Amino acid sequence: MRLVERAHERLRREESGFTLIELLVVLIIIGILLAIAVPSYLGFKERAENRAAGANVRAAIPAAEAYYADNSDYDGMTLVTLKAIDQGIALSAVTETDVAYCLQSDADGAGGGTENPHRYRGPGVDSAPVPGTCP
Predict the structure, then answer these.
(1) Distance of alpha carbon 103 from alpha carbon 6, whole angstroms
(2) Are 74 and 66 in contact (CB under 8 A)?
(3) Rg (CA), the chain
(4) For the whole model, what pTM was predicted?
(5) 118-122, strands of its sheet edge to edge
(6) How far is 43 from 82, CA to CA, in rounded Å?
(7) Where are the beta strands (DSSP E) in the chain?
(8) Which among 41, 83, 115, 121 would be 20 to 30 A from 105, CA to CA?
C-alpha cells in the first residue's frame, strides 16, 4: 500500500508540460505545412476562377444568338436585354455592333474577380472563350 501512496504523492507533486523546444518544433512543422499548402490553394483558386469565367461566357452565347434571332441584328444588345432572355447570365461586359458582339466575364460576373477575364467575339470570330478583354 505504501508503494501506491508514493506513486500518488509523486504524481501530485509533478508538474509536467511542454518545453519551449517542443513548442518551437510544432510551430516549425505548422509553418512548413502552410508553406506547402497556401501556394497550392492559390493556384487552385486561380484556375477555378478562370474556368468559371469561360463557363459564364459560354452560357451567354445562346442568349446573344436568341437576341439576334428576335431582332435580326445585335444593335441594342446589352446585359439587361440578355438577362431578360436568360436570367442566369453572369457577364461583366457586353459590347455590340449591328453585325457582331463581344461578351466578357470575370469569375463572378460582377466586374472584379479573376485577373484574366474571358471574352467571346461573335458570331463565329472566336471558336471558344479566350482570355482577354473586349475591344
Answers:
(1) 82
(2) no
(3) 30
(4) 0.68
(5) 93-96, 101-105, 118-122, 130-131
(6) 32
(7) 93-96, 101-105, 118-122, 130-131
(8) 41
